[in-house]
Amino acid sequence: MQKILFVVIIIFLVSCQSSKESSNQESSGNSEEAVKDRVEQAQITPELAYLLPLNGKYPYESELFETDPLKSRLKKLLGDEEYLNFMERMGVQVPIEVNGNQVFMEGLKAHSGGSDEAAILVDVEKNLIWALTFSNGKNLQVYKDDRDVEMPKRFFDKVVGY
């Protein structure tokens, strides 16, 4: 919300400066209309929207877990130690699934026979991340951003599968 307010203020200031430099004959109604047009044209892109066109690609191809903002968001969510466990369990990755605004990635630890896995679901529109680690064939840990929201169905299905 603060980002949107910041963008609106910047656009307003720029349009005010443009109004002063251009003809003084513009009415205040036209100036307000120009601000509205600029606000509508401003592209407010969600932080993780760059994930949406990656359907069918592997996370390692785009170094998704090695670059921000996903890396820093995951580290904040999991903590440094669990981030390393998560990354170890993403050693053998499955192609990315994109369904609407949700991006799902999963993997498993190499040579573990499926007893050590990890998965992440990113809801781009809600700017929400869910992650899980499955260790030693029995220990399931689920992580989510600090918001009270319903678990997405694709992620729920993965959790119930254990």
How far apart the termini lie comes to 37 Å
| Category by helix and strand content | alpha+beta
Please mark out the parts with pLDDT under 50 across 5 or more consecutive residues, or reply none. Answer: 1-10, 18-29
Query: Strand percentage, roughly?
Result: 15-25%
Tally the structural domains: 2
What order do the helices and strands follow? Answer: HHHHEEEEEEH
- Could you tell me the radius of gyration in angstroms? 22 Å
Report the mean per-residue pLDDT as an integer: 80
Q: Can you walk through the features of this model?
A:
This protein is of the alpha+beta class. The protein folds into two domains: 2-41; 49-160. The chain contains five helices and six strands. It has helices at 2-21, 28-41, 70-78, 80-89, 153-160, and strands spanning 92-93, 97-99, 102-108, 117-123, 128-135, 139-144. Strands 1, 2, 3, 4, 5 and 6 form a six-stranded antiparallel sheet that branches. A hairpin with a 4-residue loop joins strand 4 and strand 5. Helix 1 crosses helix 2 and helix 3 packs across helix 4 (80-89). It starts with a helix and ends with a helix. The relative contact order is 0.11. The model is unreliable at 1-10 and 18-29 (pLDDT under 50).
Keyphrases for this structure?
6 strands, globular, 6-stranded antiparallel beta sheet, alpha+beta, disordered N terminus
Task: Give me a quick take on this structure.
The chain has 162 residues and is of the alpha+beta class. The chain has 2 domains: 2-41; 49-160.
